[in-house]
Design brief:
- The protein has a 5-stranded mixed sheet, with helices on both faces. The protein has a two-stranded antiparallel ribbon with strand order 4-5.
- The protein has 2 domains: about 140 residues, Nucleotidyltransferase, domain 5, CATH 3.30.420; about 160 residues, Helix Hairpins.
- The protein is built from 14 helices and 7 strands.
- Helix 11 packs across helix 12 and helix 12 packs antiparallel against helix 14.
């Protein structure tokens, strides 16, 4: 006979679950609001949006940023321009000693909602704005990566900015780009990075994002393969999983479906009716098409990036030889 559960005294509520120390940005806004984490209420009240202060050569721009995206590794930032203003002198607009001038203060306050966090590109901007304006700011390594990318493609983010970024501000390679290129097997020194390499890497990154999003969607329905058809899919890659549901939803075997044995192909076709009320055929087919397109683009861009890196290595070696030759020519002859 099981033990009877001891009843609590009348009027004594069970101890509440401890609130998390930080916001879990993978959760929905509703779940974040209920979490009780510090800053959760303000985050939800502002619809999960941060403001971002971006400095250009001639002024400052205010962007609205999907706050959760900047906290999730490898997420694709969602950002849009709110306003851009030119300033006579950026250094006087925000200064550790004098604070934030009226023009920049009015610009920030015009767009900022109560409790909204401001993303800034420099640690001194964070301390100055928090001290003089009382606005909570965010500045960390992830923010630095975002700012680096925005500087590289400043003309896309701030079309009204006519001045060019100084070369010394655009040359350094971000740690994120270094790690990304290394993951693809490319050993690139910071001084070798050029716009072509950055753009090719950005395309590869976008393809990776598409694959990750497709993977998450497929894992939500992948367990049906085991339940309905007895197919073990755990070791499949994303494309193979997408292809299985493409076969189920289209009820056709294509030339590119040779990754499956004849038995698995037949099983997927025979069991197609079982999935009719479990998955949306149109969504599965569109996901498959997007994934195949991303795979094809990635293959082409990866080969192109390999050529760009090879060319950059050759250019660096040629420069080194030229410098060595010049040094040798400048050396006095012995004798």
């Amino acid at each position: 006979m099981p033990k009877r559960r001891r009843r609590r005294g009348r009027g004594v509520a069970p101890p509440p679950d401890p609130s998390p120390a930080t916001i879990d940005y993978y959760c929905s806004l509703k779940e974040i609001a209920a979490s009780g984490a510090p800053g959760a209420e303000d985050f939800v009240r502002n619809h999960g949006l941060h403001l971002l202060l971006f400095e250009t050569p001639s002024g400052f721009a205010i962007f609205s940023l999907c706050g959760a995206e900047i906290h999730i590794p490898d997420a694709l930032e969602i950002i849009w321009l709110k306003e851009f203003q030119k300033f006579d002198d950026n250094s006087s607009a925000i200064n550790v000693g004098t604070g934030v001038n009226k023009q920049l203060t009015d610009m920030i306050m015009q767009w900022r909602r109560p409790g909204q966090k401001l993303v800034v590109g420099k640690p001194e901007y964070k301390s100055t704005i928090e001290t003089f304006l009382g606005i909570p700011c965010l500045h960390d390594e992830v923010v630095m990566e975002v700012m680096w990318g925005m500087k590289r493609f400043m003309s896309n983010f701030v079309p009204a900015e006519e001045s060019k970024l100084p070369k010394e501000d655009s040359l350094p390679m971000s740690q994120g780009l270094l790690m990304f290129l290394s993951r693809y097997g490319f050993d690139v020194k910071p001084e070798m990075v050029n716009e072509d390499i950055v753009r090719a890497a950005a395309t590869l990154f976008h393809c990776d994002i598409i694959e990750k999003k497709c993977c998450r969607a497929l894992l939500d329905v992948g367990h049906y393969l085991k339940r309905e058809s007895g197919i073990d899919y755990e070791n499949w890659d994303t494309l193979k999983l997408a292809t299985a549901f493409k076969i189920i939803c289209s009820r056709k075997i294509g030339d590119s479906d040779e990754m499956f044995s004849d038995d698995v192909q037949s099983k997927l076709l025979d069991d197609a009716d079982k999935y009719k009320d479990l998955v949306y055929a149109r969504d599965c087919l569109r996901l498959y098409e997007n994934l195949v397109a991303a795979y094809n683009v990635r293959a082409v861009k990866k080969d192109g990036l390999a050529l760009l890196v090879k060319r950059a290595n050759a250019d660096e070696a040629e420069q080194a030889r030229s410098i060595t030759t010049i040094i040798q020519m400048d050396e006095p002859l012995e004798g």
